[in-house]
Amino acid sequence: MLSNILYVLLALVMLGVIVTVHEFGHYLVGRLCGIGIVEFSVGFGPRLLGWERKGIKYSLRGIPLGGYCAFVGEDERNDDPRAMNNQPVWKRFLTVLAGPFMNFVLAFVACAVMLNAYFIAQTYPTVDQVMAGMPAQEAGLEAGDRILRVNGVELTNDSAGVSTMLSTMQSGDLTQPIELVVDRGGAEQTFSMTAVPVQSEDGGATRYQIGIVFSSRTYNFFESIREAGGYMVDTTGQMLESLKNLIFKGEGLEDTAGPVGIIAVVSQRAREGMYMVLWLIFIISLNLGIMNLLPIPALDGGRLLFLIVEAIRRKPIPPEKEGTVHAIGMVLLLGLFVVLTYHDIVKLVTGGFNF
Fold it and tell me: Could you say which of 29, 196, 261, 320 has the lowest number of CB atoms within 10 Å?
């Protein structure tokens, strides 16, 4: 029970960090552009903690599922020269864009750290571990043995060599002995062993194994930076494709979750270790950045659309009218929030989420 509570708290902290980074983007660029700020808040609802510095209110509120950075004159006319609607379009555009941009930055950093610390960049046909009681141990293989040939097939000292070894073994008769030639301390030695069937832990397919773990390495710093960029591009494409299918085909509608569902899933998956925490930060932050760029009123994308229209017209849209559109959008989003939350609670009660 205590562990469940701790993982739920971890999920809340993770979501709070992701949202805070988003709002900090608005705050930082807004201040750099000279736009007046009324309040910077982490969370919604009742204020738990607050202070004021240089005319800006800072708040920590009770519901850690959002936050906001309120600017002077954001949705109404204001004669203050620091008011947001008195600023040039480019300043307002950068300030609004900074929130999603910071989510992309956080996703990139989380992805790079995850690749650098946990993901395998290269595997080598060298024995790193020998599993007890398996054919490799019984035949005499030892950690550090560099496998040169399998059933007479030469192996390169890289991931391709490992793939060649596995494909060579699997393409033959696995009930027959497998011959390995290894380099041990500069001398070649030959070992013969027969693979044994091993069922996966989840009760899935049975695979034949000899019982060794190959040596491998994770991405170095520069590799992780390069690969994180490509990983983000690929994942963004997959997210946009899923969003398109959801909107136009209804695919994945039953899997759509609200805040309760997100907290439940995050608290479940975070138990798998730090690599999963980084993965969740990457996925959620990237998703938040993408969703906020959609041209929906009340979201950053909706505000950016109004700014683009203003730049094309060379004439500002009356703040009161824009504010009304965003207010309607916010009401609709809150309605969706309530529906998804109800759906999450029903699923939680009926055992759809397992804590």
Answer: 320
Among 72, 214, 80, smallest CA distance to 136 is for 214
341 CB-contact burial (10 Å; exposed 0-12 / middle 13-18 / buried 19+): middle
Tell me the HSE value of 35 on the side-chain side, using a 13 A CA sphere. Answer: 28
**Alpha helices in the chain, H assignment, sequence order:** 2-32, 89-117, 135-139, 159-171, 221-249, 259-269, 274-292, 300-313, 319-349
**CA–CA gap between residue 85 and residue 24 (Å, rounded):** 20
Is residue 115 within 8 Å of residue 57, measured between CB atoms?
no
The DSSP code for 318 is: P
Burial class of residue 49, CB neighbours in 10 A (0-12, 13-18, 19+): exposed
Q: Residue 352: its pLDDT value, please? A: 64
Q: How many CB atoms lie within 10 A of CB 229?
A: 13
Model pLDDT, residue 204? 63
> Distance from CA of residue 287 to its chain's centroid?
8
DSSP secondary structure string for all residues of 119-183: SEEEEEEEEEEE-TTSHHHHHT--TTPEEEEETTEE--SSHHHHHHHHHHHHHS-TTS-EEEEEE
Query: What is the DSSP-derived secondary structure letter of residue 60?
Result: E
pLDDT for 354 beyond 60: no
Q: Which of 141, 256, 146 lies closest to 209, judged by CA?
A: 141
pLDDT digits over 282-298, tens only? 999 999 999 999 998 88
Task: Give the span between the Cα atoms of 344 and 230, in whole angstroms.
Answer: 33
Q: Are 95 and 69 in contact (CB under 8 A)?
A: no
